[in-house]
Amino acid sequence: AATHNITVLPGDGIGPEITKVALKALTAAGKAEGEDFVYTEAPIGGAAIDATGDPYPASTEEVCKAADAVLLACIGGYKWDSLPNAQRPEKGLLRLRSSLNAFANLRPAVVLPQLADASTLKREVVEGVDILIVVEGVDILIVRELVGGIYFGEPRGFKEENGERVGYNTMVYRESEVERIARVAFDAAMKRGKRLCSVEKSNVLEVSQLWKDVVIRVAQDYPEVELSHMYIDNAAMQLIRNPKYFDVVVTGNIFGDILSDEASMLTGSLGMLPSASISEPGKPGIYEPVHGSAPDIAGQDKANPLAMVLSAAMMCRYGLNLPKVADRLEAAVTAALDAGYRTGDIMQPGCKQPRPSAGRHPSGSP
Amino acid sequence: AATHNITVLPGDGIGPEITKVALKALTAAGKAEGEDFVYTEAPIGGAAIDATGDPYPASTEEVCKAADAVLLACIGGYKWDSLPNAQRPEKGLLRLRSSLNAFANLRPAVVLPQLADASTLKREVVEGVDILIVVEGVDILIVRELVGGIYFGEPRGFKEENGERVGYNTMVYRESEVERIARVAFDAAMKRGKRLCSVEKSNVLEVSQLWKDVVIRVAQDYPEVELSHMYIDNAAMQLIRNPKYFDVVVTGNIFGDILSDEASMLTGSLGMLPSASISEPGKPGIYEPVHGSAPDIAGQDKANPLAMVLSAAMMCRYGLNLPKVADRLEAAVTAALDAGYRTGDIMQPGCKQPRPSAGRHPSGSP
Ligand SMILES: CC(C)[C@H](C(=O)O)[C@@H](O)C(=O)O
Ligand SMILES: CC(C)[C@H](C(=O)O)[C@@H](O)C(=O)O
Description:
The structure is a homodimer of 366-residue chains. In chain A, a hairpin with a 2-residue loop joins strand 8 (157-161) and strand 9 (164-174). In chain A, helix 1 (15-32) packs across helix 10 (323-338). The first copy, chain A, has a ten-stranded mixed beta sheet, with helices on both faces. Helices cover 36% and strands 23% of the residues of chain A. With 366 residues, chain A is α/β, with parallel strands linked by helices. Chain A contains ten helices and 14 strands. Chain A has helices at 15-32, 46-52, 58-66, 89-99, 175-191, 206-219, 232-241, 253-266, 306-319, 323-338, and strands spanning 3-11, 36-41, 69-74, 104-110, 124-127, 130-133, 139-145, 157-161, 164-174, 195-200, 226-231, 248-251, 274-278, 286-289. At the A-B interface, strand 5, strand 8, strand 9, helix 6 and helix 7 of A face strand 5, strand 8, strand 9, helix 6 and helix 7 of B. One 3-isopropylmalic acid sits between chains A (90, 93-94, 257) and B (203-204, 233). One 3-isopropylmalic acid sits between chains B (90, 93-94, 257) and A (203-204, 233). Chains A, B: This is 3-isopropylmalate dehydrogenase. Chains A, B: Homodimer. Chains A, B: Catalyzes the oxidation of 3-carboxy-2-hydroxy-4-methylpentanoate (3-isopropylmalate) to 3-carboxy-4-methyl-2-oxopentanoate. The product decarboxylates to 4-methyl-2 oxopentanoate. Chains A, B: It is found in: Cytoplasm.
């Protein structure tokens, strides 16, 4: 038995309520396996702006860096929408990722059999003489580069030219950045279906040509993995046409932002999807749901806490090497779904609302 | 009656065969309305590389600039895939767009009632207590900026830094570029549902903040249009979750590339989708299908020519001010579908293959 120091960032909106559920589940699953979790809460995003004027205060950075892992809920809300960009909740999130060098964002998009009907995609379509199974059994892992690319590239900003304003950003990748994310993706592919699709726009962009070159070079160390290349426009299309084509996808920061949100829709609900952002060995990673802070339903006991519980499971699996605790958390989610419990976002005819909880948070959770 | 000079660029793969069908239909529809079309053919893409070593030879540029409108089929193929980027078919397309200053790319994504079953999206889903109609009646116009942004931004290229290669591109927009594309989009919205959604990533990118500022300023001239703003990641998601939310979408070059390909999948077949790329008043626009050159089925009399016929219709409507000829071409497409004719890409149980044609090209066309 060991003690694990978790820095918990409840953030904004539904963040605090789904955090409570996840920590309760995590503590229970840990206890069953003889593992102890110590939680240190810190503010980030809007909550941190309100408390300190800074979306990622130095005190938060400090406890994040000192932790074994960081469990983040979600940030943002209407309240802070009109602030200048540098002071907005999103900036806190970007600075958190960057300060921990959390370069590898793993976003699984799995269509659970219990939820296939919640997808806007059909179970199958007829294509010519073939029947194409569309959503059932979809199991994609998107590996998104998270601390480089156009999100952080310099130069960036505004200038005046010929009497008018110009806005500009730089999409940039260096070999070592592509190599390290490619290795994470190839390693993941080796543990899964051994197929990797690298997504870029190398028919137009030099930065993508470099990306592709490096991925091809790294592939030599992974002869068992079947590597393919796809342009981002085609990938956005194939993700809807034939999502089962994909096993692991590796891509840059903004393409990964777009594709992972799109892929999340295949599953029917953002409320189900966790993510892990991994740093170098020995440094803490960040574990967070893909969904936002849903300020419109915050505090109403309606939010789906499952993505947050599954994020805690990813933390145990990838960050703390506690696969048994992860298994327990995932089994609890499956059990809640099998028992027919559904929050509004994934409600289907014949299913039931979680029973009202003692506290303020939903209790359809494990 | 007037004579219209059309420069025709059949390009590669299925290009020549779908071009034949479209020109036959266009000539016939013109004749019925007393309009004459004179066609000047010129090579572009792979065909031009093979003939001259250049994917966009000066002779082609000349006849394009001299035309009333340019009708392009599609370019590219495996044969030219290993050439360096500057010599690839795609470069010819990018240079064509740029040389004609065809800055406004209009890409309609309309789900025809006859084809709703070909979509991988469901007709409807249950969301909580609501039934959400998903694909039926979807009618989106994507207005994509086509000659700026990261496609053409400078500086771009490769450099060496700390002993490693770095690839970089610049995403840049100036006020005047955003303003002119915004005006095209607002004008289009006025003629349609009066709703415009501007898509960018202003929570992260300065270039997007400038984009958003300018769109908001231009909106003051269009008080009747309901303007909304959406981040690209959310737009990629909403396009699958609730496509009927969208009327007109305006966005930059690469976001438009991604979104329009994704939107095309809603309709079930790329083989149905035309596009128009409009330049300044008095200059020729480019009209082309959204699909590629499909080298795998080229020359086999299997290609769906409808996107090409509909591109000719867009040319008549937007480029030549011949709405009656456009109506005839669109009616012919509808009639072919209503009669149950389908190429393989949109085949459904109970429909029939187009009857074999006298020549090499499909004849399920008007
Ligand atoms: C909030 C925003 C800055 C962030 C991003 O773009 O990375 C979000 O969309 C995400 O994907 O985590
Ligand atoms: C072929 C390619 C350069 C082109 C683009 O990216 O613009 C294509 O994808 C398109 O959308 O017309």
